[in-house]
Amino acid sequence: MQITRLGVLWDEAALAGLLKTKVPVCYGGESVLLNRARVAYGVAYWHGVAFTASRRGLIAFMFDQEWRARYATPGKRAQVPLDAAFAVLKIDKDYTHEAVFRCVPA
User: What pTM did the predictor assign?
Assistant: First the structure.
């Protein structure tokens, strides 16, 4: 997981086993040994990349708060890049008013 101006970016790491105090994972083509307790109950860092056991709950909220502290402008909502917004809303670049508001109840 990395926190960038675009937001909290999640990526997968392949679990390579479990040891008594360490968790071996494969990430970005490299073998990494992480502290098992930190991964399970919080965050373990390796080269500035955060590893955690869950993408939900309190830890996700904490990462979101960290992003807001770093990049959000006070009083404004976080902006989504236009291309990403089009993809999420499933509308074409040549959108119409009806296409944008088709799911909004009257």
Answer: 0.59
2: three-class secondary structure by DSSP: strand
- 22 in any annotated domain: yes
Distance CA 47, CA 35 (A): 14
For the chain, what is the domain count? 1
**Among candidate residues 48, 9, 60, 53, the one with its CA nearest the CA of residue 35:** 53
pLDDT in tens, 94-106: 777 676 666 555 4
Q: Buried b / exposed e across 17-35, counting CB within 10 Å, b at 16+?
A: eeeeebbebebeeeebebb
On whether residue 106 sits in a domain, the answer given is: no
- The answer to whether 51 touches 25, Cβ cutoff 8 Å, is yes
Q: Structural domain of residue 13, as residue ranges?
A: 2-73
User: Does residue 103 form part of some domain?
Assistant: no
| CA neighbor of 36 nearest in space, from 16, 50, 22, 24 | 22
